[in-house]
Amino acid sequence: MEGDPGSTGVFERLGVARVINASGRMTALGGSQLSDEVLRAMGEAARAYVDMSELQKRAGRRLAECCGAEDGMPTAGAAAGVAIMTAAVVAGTEPGRVASLPDADWEPRDIVLQAGHQVHFGAPIVQMIRLGGGRPTPVGSVNRVTADDARAGFAGPCAGALYVQSHHAVTTGMLDLATWIREAHAAGMPVLVDAAAEEDLRRYVAMGADLVTYSGGKAPEGPTSGFIVGREDLIRACRAQQEGIARPMKIGKEAIAGLVVAVEGLATEMAARRKRCEAILSALERGLREVEALEVSREPDEAGRSIERLSVRARPGASLDIQALAQGLMAGEIRIFTRNHHVGEGCILIDPRPMSLDDVPILIERLRALSARIGG
Ligand SMILES: *Cc1c(COP(=O)(O)O)cnc(C)c1O
User: Fold this and answer.
1) How far is the CA of 370 from the centre of ligand 1 (A)?
2) Does residue 208 sit in helix, strand or coil?
3) Sheet with 348-350, side-by-side order of all strands
4) Could you give the residue ranges of the DSSP H alpha helices within the chain?
5) Does 166 contact ligand 1 (Cβ within 6 A)?
6) Is the CB of 167 under 6 A from ligand 1?
7) Tens digit of pLDDT for each residue in 2-37?
8) Which atom of ligand 1 is closest in space to residue 215's alpha carbon?
9) Which of 180, 242, 308, 325 has the CA that lies 20 to 30 A from 275?
10) Residue 299, number of CB atoms within 10 A of its CB
11) How far apart are CA 30 and CA 305, in angstroms?
12) Is the pLDDT reported for residue 156 higher than 70?
């Protein structure tokens, strides 16, 4: 199934270009490729009726077990997770309040977060807070937040303390999660963590976070989905939002089934996945070393996760515009997306995680042809 071009039949019929994803687990490129096991669970679920409320609860329990948490709730994604976690701490389980969100004429409803955590992941995180009835309340400066800044925020009409664990967020100068939790708990505030793209499903709950949300389509490589895990009373408040703002964010039975199987498999899948990534990286390295104009090397993940990528730069002395190279990759009949956060500094990154071995020769050939043409 992996990399089978025949599996894009519907996309082809719609006239949508074939894509090779060498950039990472990007929601904008369709999240992830599902394993046979995940697909099978989704197929089974699709053909059966079920009591959705019971499925929601049981699946939440199982997700929580996988994360070492008290309870959990499947969601449409991590963005929905942020809105629902916010609604849970702003409205609780009170039906009148649940029904009036996102309008809230009561206090407290500040959601305090560090200035450098106001990320845009395709949409602004502060908008997700507002959707849940919260008032985004950044503290400190984008490159410096002190414990005093945090305390001042928690002393206001604060309903929760949001922490964004992400490569999108500023890390230098921010308070780390342990300090954030200590200060928030000292002020009696629940800590909400957006860990959308993180691989470690246990770490943040173990550190004492009260609610944590993850994206099911990112590290677990599940279908488009997400989940919240955490304290039992707060998960009950999250579930109460299903009769409010969580309704237009609902997740179907197929996605719930696929999500659970993907999350259950994450721990055991990791070793096999690392091996596959290593095979892709070394095949790429071997092939690209032969391309005169290019210099390749391994790069560790900027956010400290256990991910290795391949950086591609112009070899010293070669006149090659790396920006044009990245553009050229995206412009072909098969559109190849690389990780271009550092393209301005003359570097494109290749992320092996969403790739298959079949993509490798295509990518090498395109880089060879383009660097000959652009470098000219
Ligand atoms: C991807 C991402 C999201 C959104 O996740 P979805 O599952 O696509 O809704 C939220 N926050 C961060 C930090 C992300 O990286």
Assistant:
1) 33
2) coil
3) 294-300, 308-314, 348-350
4) 9-13, 36-46, 52-67, 78-91, 95-100, 125-131, 147-154, 177-186, 203-207, 232-240, 253-289, 322-331, 359-375
5) yes
6) no
7) 445 445 689 989 999 999 999 987 778 887 889 999
8) 7
9) 325
10) 17
11) 22
12) yes
> Which residue, chain included where needed, has tokens 């939790």?
181
* Atom 12 of ligand 1, nearest CA residue: 196
pLDDT of residue 3: 45
- The predicted structure's pLDDT at residue 6: 45
Residue 353, phi then psi, degrees to nearest 5? -60, -45
The answer, yes or no, to whether any atom of ligand 1 lies below 6 A from the CB of 27, is yes
> What integer pLDDT is reported at residue 48 of this predicted model?
95
Say if CB 138 and CB 166 are below 8 A apart: no
Closest of 196, 236, 201, 203 to residue 217, by C-alpha: 196
Nearest atom (ligand 1) to Cα of 79: 9
The finding on whether 251 has its CB within 6 A of some atom of ligand 1 is: no
Which residues are bridge partners to 119 per DSSP? none
Residue nearest to atom 11 of ligand 1 (CA): 196
Cβ–ligand 1 distance for 245 under 6 Å, the answer no
Q: Which of 71-75, 149-153, 269-273 has the lowest mean pLDDT?
A: 269-273
Q: What residue type is 192 in one-letter code? A: L
Q: Alpha-carbon distance 100 to 93, whole Å?
A: 12
User: What percentage of the chain carries pLDDT values higher than 90?
Assistant: 85
Which residues contact residue 176 at a Cβ distance below 8 angstroms, ignoring those fewer than 6 apart?
A: none
On whether the CB atoms of residues 137 and 147 are closer than 8 A, the answer is no
pLDDT of residue 5: 45
Mutate to test the pocket of ligand 1, among 27, 162, 225, 251 (most ligand atoms within 8 A of CB): 27
